[in-house]
Each structure stands twice: as C-alpha cells, then as structure tokens.
Amino acid sequence: AVLMRRVLLLILFLGAAAPALGAGLPAMALSSGTASELSGIESDMSRSPTARSRLAQASGVERREAPRDAGSSGIRYVSGRGILAFDSKRLGLLMPWEVELVLVRELARAGAGLPIELIESEMAAYQEALQFAMERAAADEDFDARLIGAVRGMEKREKAPRVSDDWPRDELDRIAYLLLLFQKNPDRFYRA
Fold first, then answer.
1. CA–CA separation, 117 vs 38, rounded Å?
2. CA gap 134, 131 in Å, rounded
3. Burial class, 139, CB count within 10 angstroms (exposed 0-12 / middle 13-18 / buried 19+)
C-alpha cells in the first residue's frame, strides 16, 4: 500500500512538472495537407467501434506537427505535453491502414491521459490496436489477407533460431506478433 501511494505521488508530481519540462520543444499546428489526410483516415477508420470510441475519447487532445517527438511510426502521444505528435514526412511513407493501426494505438494512449508512460498503458494501447485490427480484418478482405500473411510470417520467425528477441519494426508485424503470442500463450502476450 505504501509503495502504491509513492507511485501515485510520483505520477502526480511528474504530471505536474512534465508540461514545464517539454515547454521548450518546438511543435507547430498540422499543415492543411496533413490535417486533411488525417481527417480522411479518421473518417475511414471510424467505421470500427473501437476506433470511434478512441477518437471520441481523445477528441480534446491537441494534434501538432512535431517530427522529433513523433517517433519511428510517425505518430506518438507525448505524455508530458499532452499532444499527439505527427511527422508528416514519415506518414507519407505509410499505407493508410498502417497509419490507422498506429493512430488507434496512440489515441488509446492519449485517451488514458497519463502524465508519464507506463508499461501497462502501452499494453492497453496495443490491446486496443489488436481489437481494431480484428474489426478491420472482418470488414476488409485485403487487410484480412495482409494480416493473415503477417501472422504466418511471425509464426515462421518464432520457429526459426535467432540471436535476439527483437520487437518487429513494422506495425502490422507487431500486431501479428502480439496476436500470435495471445493465441499461443496469453501470459507471454501480457509480458511482451
């Protein structure tokens, strides 16, 4: 109980201090092109109940062009600043369904609104992305085929001897990897 109180106090302290810590980092409003593209993607993904829920939950979260904060996926919720950071150049390299997978995960993180990143919140966000992927696969045969192919690829990867347990770099491969883990061993899935 004492440890839980200390953790909660630390979270509250860091949450109060975090905006001041990140205040000097540059972020601009989304360009009209990025905002328009994002609006179209959000409209398409809103056919999914999970995506609709995440979009509604994170509707008040500010969206900013901040390539340094957006991470390798091109979208990242920045906990201490309470913004969704976007890298329009990186997003331009992704297929719309890849952007959707990343966006629903980051919307889940944004909707939680935690002042710091926690392992549990990352896993919860990935669970939302998995749910969205299942809903998308049920409604889109092309995506379903891609997802099945990615799961098969991850099955081969799991069987092959390898030196490290590298986290898959591609978003669809991450989803496939987590689906495979959940199917085979839910405990290992939750520890991933």
1. 24
2. 5
3. exposed
Please, which residues have CB within 8 angstroms of residue 38's CB and are 6 or more apart in sequence? 30, 63, 86, 103
Nearest to 75 by CA among 47, 116, 34: 34
| Interatomic CA distance for residues 125 and 118, integer angstroms | 11
Both structure tokens of 45: 């993904």
Q: Report the distance separating Cα 5 and Cα 3, nearest Å.
A: 5
- Give the integer Cα–Cα distance in Å for 109 and 11: 15
Can you say how many angstroms the Cα of residue 102 is from the centroid of all Cα atoms in its chain?
A: 4
Q: What pLDDT digit, counting tens, does each position of 42-90 carry? A: 999 999 999 999 999 999 999 999 988 888 889 999 988 889 999 989 9
Residue type, 118: L
The pTM of the full predicted model, rounded to 2 decimals, is: 0.80
Query: How many Cβ atoms from other residues are within 10 Å of residue 95's Cβ?
Result: 12
